[in-house]
Amino acid sequence: MFGGNQRFAANFRRQWATVGEPYLQVSGAYDLRFTNKKGHFKPWSASLLFNHDQAGDAKLSFSQLGLGASYTHRLVPGKKTFLTFGMSGSAIQRSFDPNGLRFDDQYFLKEGFVGSQATGEFFEATSKWLGEVSTGVNLRILNDSSRTTLDIGAAAFHFNQPQKNFQDQLPTRLDSRFSVYVSSAWQMTKAFDLLFSITGQFQGANRQALLGVGGLYHLSSKRTRELALQLGGYYRAGDAFIPAVALHFQAWQFHFSYDLNTSSLREASLGKGGPEVSVIYILKNVPVIPVCKTCPTHM
């Protein structure tokens, strides 16, 4: 059987660049925790994931539909300490529109760029399907009497290394990407939480480290009237500072951040950063707690 604790999360993100086309991402996820015939939760969960993003003059897009499963084990009886193992499989489509590209044989000394001029470029395919398998593990520790949480985890993405390019004659494999992270929220006062996170990612010869620090102030903690303001920022090592602000209202989250480049990418962005807006909605379905029947004599 399944039912009980269900959750749907939708995310819309838009990023504007100083040059070129803006970046667009739309994603959604549905989580389902299984229960037995008595309504008690089982350690197994399932998930459905959708993700689509598009960027660049050629509208290079990435569309993903995935299924996942996880198993959670309570490490200490009576304590909120959980170890979760998960795995997912996805079907992915990568595509682009060559009409948005410009080539050197379309430029002329007098006329300049002529978009109607035919080029000698040949594209064997503008769309590619691939299958991807990922896995991960997460340790979650919750404080019994406060909002303090700690998550430590690691994941391996597309470790099956699917072919990523659009030409079958020249196969190129997608390198596996490995991620490790620590994320924590510490309740400092009745209304204030200190937030901290650090993430490291490794793919082939590429490396990235992201450090985040911030605070979450709970303006209202009343049921159905939750309201909180989040302030902070991130530092992407060797690349950018990212100040960020967010508003949490019931099941809604509104995020705004601004990338301030510190690397040589500033030459391409003309010394300006890139604003990013994200809207998240989380829909939860909490199981109804059975109500004991009252004796008619005492009604």
By DSSP, the count of extended strands is 16
Order of strands, main sheet, comes to 1-2-3-4-5-8-9-10-11-12-13-14-15-16
What structural category arises from helix and sheet content? mainly beta
- Element string (H = helix, E = strand): EEEEEEEEEEEEEEEE
Judging from the principal axes of the Cα atoms, what is the shape? globular
Radius of gyration: 24 Å
List the helices and strands and how they pair.
Layout: E1 2-15, E2 23-35, E3 41-55, E4 60-74, E5 81-95, E6 107-108, E7 112-113, E8 127-142, E9 149-157, E10 177-187, E11 192-203, E12 206-220, E13 227-236, E14 240-249, E15 252-261, E16 274-285
Antiparallel strand pairs: 1-2, 1-16, 2-3, 3-4, 4-5, 5-8, 6-7, 8-9, 9-10, 10-11, 11-12, 12-13, 13-14, 14-15, 15-16
Structure description:
By secondary structure, the chain is mostly beta strands. The chain is 0% helix and 61% strand. The chain has no helices and 16 strands. A hairpin with a 6-residue loop joins strand 12 and strand 13. The protein is globular. 4% of the residues are buried. The mean pLDDT is 83.
